[in-house]
Write a sequence for this structure.
């Protein structure tokens, strides 16, 4: 009786629950690549309007030839190129351009950033578009020592 | 033998069953539940304390327990539950006046300032509240949070104690005359001297960089036109013009952000003052 029980156990259960070498040594499909801003970029051009197509073309060219090569070095979140696209989408082409040139001047200023901007993640200064649309109702002031979750 | 053992076991089980009736279990007796809930309340574990009090049957709860349940809910931010219970406290209760003050405090915390003032001025308890200094203080200070026209200075400061007058004076003056910057002035200054508007709004380094950028591109444009490099001249002129215009625009936005910061800091100062004063509501002696 015991022998039959052992045989049943061995021939039926062990093939079902045995750990196979294939599972044990299977190639791990892990990516060690650090996720970057570029992965989330939308390079497509919708062609909805002429102004949007023109600006998006310039932005994509900037991403492709400068930003992607240079790396994630913009100190602000959203980055200047993203800021331009968001500013135009939120307002209009002339206003968006003015917002961008103002942002670019602030980007050149390397002094006193820590005491001026809240932080996004560990390294970026939070400087969103809604602060600069000139619509007072949209402004939500955050003090400089605030940390905001990454977008 | 086994059968006999089973029979005895069954008889014992029938005779001495575990009694689920709370009256036999001292832990669930009303006095002990109150003691534990009081302990939690005094340890400032308000949510658990409220849940303990709620274990007591509704009919057995006195006004003090109901008040403490509502107070616990109010402290943990469950204003709906707190209001429901405070509103049910009747006029005969010794906690009636306190419950009305707590209701005013909840209106304040919910930022329902017009409702707070309506409750004070025309509510069923207006006579009680209008004779109560705490209610008057909450009523007047609600104007500091609101966009409604604020009462005159003499009326405003009347209900406050001498020790509170200094802070109230400062807050009143900040509300009436906030140290805001005029966005148009900021833009105009930047139009006259690039970056001056930013300096006016306190962004000194931004202003200097705006001046340098506009100046540099203007110089490059001038230099290239002078050297008869027309294309580069026009290119730098366009960039200089965009930086110049962008700075005028940015100065306006900078003044708006400055004003938003003033408002934020004012609210922070006001909230901090109110918290330090416990919204003018006297401390209860539940834990003495």
């Amino acid at each position: 009786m015991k022998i039959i029980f052992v045989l049943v156990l061995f021939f039926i259960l062990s093939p079902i629950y045995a750990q196979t070498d294939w599972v044990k040594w299977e190639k791990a499909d892990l990516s060690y690549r650090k996720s970057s801003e570029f992965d989330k970029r939308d390079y497509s051009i919708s062609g909805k309007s002429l102004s949007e197509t023109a600006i998006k073309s310039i932005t994509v060219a900037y991403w492709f030839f400068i930003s992607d090569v240079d790396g994630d070095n913009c100190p602000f979140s959203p980055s200047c190129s993203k800021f331009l696209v968001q500013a135009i989408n939120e307002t209009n082409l002339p206003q968006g351009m003015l917002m961008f040139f103002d942002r670019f001047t602030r980007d050149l200023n390397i002094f006193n950033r820590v005491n001026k901007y809240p932080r996004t993640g560990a390294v970026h200064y939070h400087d969103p578009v809604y602060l600069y649309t000139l619509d007072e109702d949209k402004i939500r002031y955050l003090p400089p020592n605030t940390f905001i979750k990454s977008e | 033998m086994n059968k006999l053992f089973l029979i005895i076991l069954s008889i014992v089980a029938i005779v001495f069953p575990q009694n689920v009736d709370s009256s036999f279990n001292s832990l669930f007796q009303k006095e002990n539940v109150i003691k534990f809930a009081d302990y939690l309340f005094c340890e400032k574990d308000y949510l658990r304390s409220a849940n303990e009090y709620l274990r007591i049957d509704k009919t057995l709860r006195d006004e003090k327990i109901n008040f403490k349940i509502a107070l616990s809910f109010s402290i943990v931010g469950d204003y709906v539950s707190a209001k429901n219970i405070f509103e049910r406290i009747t006029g005969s209760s010794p906690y009636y006046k306190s419950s009305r003050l707590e209701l005013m405090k909840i209106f304040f915390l919910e930022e329902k300032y017009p409702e707070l003032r309506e409750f004070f001025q025309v509510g069923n308890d207006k006579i009680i509240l209008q004779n109560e200094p705490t209610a008057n203080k909450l009523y007047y200070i609600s104007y500091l949070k609101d966009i409604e026209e604020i009462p005159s200075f003499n009326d405003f400061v009347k209900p406050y104690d001498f020790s509170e007058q200094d802070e109230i004076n400062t807050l009143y003056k900040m509300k009436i005359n906030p140290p805001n910057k005029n966005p148009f002035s900021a833009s105009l200054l930047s139009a006259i001297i690039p970056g001056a508007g930013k300096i006016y709004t306190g962004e000194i380094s931004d202003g200097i960089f705006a001046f340098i950028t506009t100046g540099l591109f203007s110089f490059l444009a001038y230099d290239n036109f002078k050297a008869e490099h027309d294309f580069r001249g026009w290119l730098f002129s366009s960039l200089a013009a965009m930086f110049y215009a962008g700075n005028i625009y940015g100065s306006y936005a900078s003044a708006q952000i400055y004003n938003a910061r003033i408002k934020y800091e004012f609210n922070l100062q006001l909230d901090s003052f109110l918290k330090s004063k416990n919204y003018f509501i006297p401390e209860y002696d539940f834990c003495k």
